Amino acid sequence: MPKNDLIxxxxxxxxxxxxxxxxxxxxxxxxxxxxVHTLFDYFVPxxxxxxxxxxxxxxxxxxRKLIGVCxxxxxxxxHQKPRAIHKVLDSSALVDANLRGMAQWLSDYYHHPxxxxxxxxxxxxxxxGSPTTAPxxxxxxxxxxxxxxxxxxxxxxxxxxxxxxxAPVTRDTLIANGFSSALLNTxxxxxxxxxxxxxxxxxxxPAAPDTLETPLKLNSEQNAALTALRANTGYRTILLxxxxxxxxxxxxxxxxxxxxxxxxxxxxxVPEIALTPxxxxxFQRRFGNAAALHSQLGDNERWQIWLGCRDGSIPVVxxxxxxxxxxxxxxxxxxVDEEHDGSFKQTDGLRYSARDLSVKRAxxxxxxxxxxxxxxxxxxxxxxxxxxxxxxxLTERAGGAALPTYRVLDIRGQQAKDGISEPLKRVIRQHLDxxxxxxxxxxxxxxxxSLLCNSCGVxxxxxxxxLPMTYHRxxxxxxxxxxxxxxCSRQQGIPEQCTSCGLxxxxxxxxGTQRTEQGVAEAFPDVxxxxxxxxTVRSARALEAQFAAIRGGQPALLVGTQMLAKGHHFPDVTLxxxxxxxxxxxxxxxxxxxxxxxxxxxxxxxxxxxxKKGEVWIQTMQPESxxxxxxxxxxxSGFAARELAQRSAAGLxxxxxxxxxxxxxxxxxxxxxxxxxxxxxxxxxAAQAELTQVQIMGPVPAPIPRVSGRIRLQxxxxxxxxxxxxxLLTGLRDAPKTPSNLRWSVDVDxxxxx
Length: 754
Ligand code: ADP
Ligand code: ZN
Prior knowledge:
Radius of gyration: 30 Å
Distance between the termini: 30 Å
Number of helices: 21
Number of domains: 6
Largest sheet: 7 strands, parallel
Bound molecules: adenosine-5'-diphosphate, zinc ion
Strand order of the largest sheet: 12-13-11-14-15-10-16
CATH architecture of the largest domain: 3-Layer(aba) Sandwich
CATH topology of the largest domain: Rossmann fold
Helix content: 25-40%
Low-confidence stretches: 11-22, 204-208
Strand content: 15-25%
CATH superfamily of the largest domain: P-loop containing nucleotide triphosphate hydrolases
Shape: globular
């Protein structure tokens, strides 16, 4: 529903049908899942239970029924003629005070309507009004024994088993102990047993204590880190800056054990779990009852875990970004693993950062926040440098393995057929001949990033996005070559001739994983090749199968995108080849060098994880690039220090605060006019409020100026003072009227900026 209709829904005659005023009735102010910064008032009819703050209520909204959260009771400035709510769904608060505070903060900080914040942070089942009672399952308890039971020894054994149990016994337990369902039914019919309902055990696959893994003996660096973590109490953010394989996870595990022993809960955020089931496995083997929260869960499962966290019955939760929004009865620690990872920032709707939210949350709860990474975000390094975060280091690999060495491979004037230069081929050969594996990293899927006309030089572009389409050869998954736009979902066949000049002279230009895979297959026919990217890996299971084969240890070549960079361990990889670092360093996005350096270090970290030492070769046409040089000679921290200095000099984050206002429309004029008007309004407000530090730039085209047929423009707002920026952004709530064919959004602390 467009915004203006929403406002009229509130004030329309429909909204005034409330019955005559009763003197002492309860009024509730409700946050509803609608895209406006307005809260809506209703009254509670006398036949309803009284809601609390944080109760869900079902209310009429225009002609519809919506479920919202009660955020104020009897507000002094209540609407004069409120409608009646339909139903109070929770007699006691579903959303506790902590979570309400967090929702309000998210709304204020990200300038997102409170009702939509709730729609993001409540699980689907909660939004649909599911009750908070836990689902039950049948269980059996013993009555007086039927006569002559001794004549049926099996029934007697079952009866005795149940009689001696301390609580009613579920069917699963009985079957696990060798009793059949048929036997259970027979005995129940004879009257020896009573069936009762018991709560289903909370999700999270509790394991028997005797199968739990014992903690490792820490090395001296890990020990020092753990001691430092234990040395304080209350709020602090600790950046655990540890090289790949330095045993950060073991430090988390042992610190979490303390927290659980103290009766508190721990939340662990990770970038991805669908693709790294071994991470969850490690926590489950250590703690027995660790629940995993991720996007592939069913509605009910997610709801039960959410409730289990809220009531305190689940001690440890491992989850992706949205797990940061879960309520906890008694949270004692938040860990953000791989804290530099871009997936912690949501890029649509409520554009929150799970890492930044965790800082706020830990601060409010007075608990520690542990950020771990081998390649910390510049934001985190900056905060550590400013003394806001405690900075702990792990400089060596836990198992004693050596870190890989870096080499810059100058390929100027060289042919790099299918992305691989001759010198790199020779190095690959040496490693394979020594019985080892090599990993080639190229952050581009498909065969070629473009299909170009050899005669006029025009590329085949997406009709909706104006950008070159990626050329894909046929594969096991898809029996035809095709073009795919990697910005929208458009796919099409290969044109016979150039759409611009009409000649049949189209040729793939540039290199993607598929082309490199083919190139190495020709150059190294004697070894298996594993390509790992989104086109070849469709599921966690497929990925596991690939990894199992690779861990077999025979000489092999791995070709892949950043999918290969995430937390996996390949003991026999001794060579990492980075094929196209230049493209990453050269991108227009100010965060691109940071992201590229982190990726290189993370991919490099897959090599030589055990006895075998690894080396990393970086192909480049710009061997003197100061960024590359800093990275290979001083490592990530040297690179980061240099990059941080540059960002400060340029007045960019983390030395300044940034917000993007994006607008998109099929009509460029509409988006342009809207942002121009908005920029003028903000400029005027900034002048009035004397917010001189705030710069408003634009409107300018977005980095991808047209996607799916919509023109995208943006305003960039920068300030070296967070408070001024936020004061100004509050003015966005009185934005100019939104034309119906325009979409616009605010992105505070954007991750993808240009
Ligand atoms: P990180 O999280 O820093 O990448 P991990 O915690 O995954 O590192 O540890 C890397 C490897 O080293 C794992 O195989 C882990 O079991 C092992 N490891 C960690 N700590 C120790 C230790 N103190 N002694 C022996 N091995 C260890
Ligand atoms: Zn497209």
